[in-house]
Design brief:
This protein is 66% helix and 3% strand. It has 7 helices and 2 strands, in the order βαααααααβ. A two-stranded antiparallel sheet has the order 1-2. 12% of the residues are buried.
Length: 205
């Protein structure tokens, strides 16, 4: 099969650091939130690991953002500027995931360097990377030092409001951790997209 280079090395490094970091944050987050239910490590260790990995992921996020902004590749996350065309592409992709893939129909999206995400992926990742991830980092930093950021926390409605927002986004990411590998397995082989995130090269069907 012909191959196309769609995942540069910085993106691959960012991706795997992000994946390992978020899994660690989920495990430690569960232990912090539900004391006594999960005992992977001591509570104090869980808090320290959670905080440090959080700051690593914040730094990693800015590596991702700066790479895409300064290499002019941020457009891969942009939905089609034509709303009608974007809607039609999204419907076709939903039909493929919900029905066509089980009938052996071809994927309606054809990957390219500047369009590596289909219509649904582009919108989803844009919401995740430009809204939910920054919100999760922001609420996490506020909860990291409640006393120092008490003014901002009070402005947002108090600790309960900030904590609730942090936990709700956390629940979303827990679900995403399960959904993302499943969708990644829907290539022409189950491991094709995983290999692409290791080598950088996506095989064209």
């Amino acid at each position: 099969m012909p191959r196309i280079y769609v995942h540069p090395l910085p993106v691959r490094i960012w991706h795997w650091i992000n994946a390992l970091g978020f899994v660690t944050m989920i495990v430690t987050g569960f232990q912090i939130r539900y004391i006594g239910l999960i005992d992977v490590m001591s509570f104090r260790t869980a808090v320290v690991v959670h905080n440090w990995i959080g700051f690593v992921l914040i730094a990693n996020f800015f590596v991702w953002l700066l790479f895409y902004l300064f290499t002019d590749k941020i457009t891969v996350y942009h939905p089609d500027l034509n709303p009608t065309r974007q809607f039609r592409r999204s419907i076709r992709q939903m039909w493929y995931y919900g029905y066509g893939i089980f009938k052996g129909e071809p994927n309606p999206h054809h990957i390219s360097v500047y369009q590596k995400f289909n219509a649904m992926q582009g919108m989803t990742y844009q919401v995740i990377m430009l809204l939910l991830v920054p919100l999760q980092f922001y609420t996490g930093v506020l909860l990291w030092d409640v006393e120092r950021f008490s003014g901002m926390i009070d402005l947002l409605g108090g600790v309960r409001v900030v904590d609730t927002a942090h936990v709700l986004i956390f629940i979303f990411f827990v679900a995403f951790i399960f959904i993302h590998p499943y969708l990644a397995s829907l290539g022409h082989t189950r491991s094709a997209h995983f290999k692409a995130m290791l080598t950088g090269y996506e095989e064209l069907e």
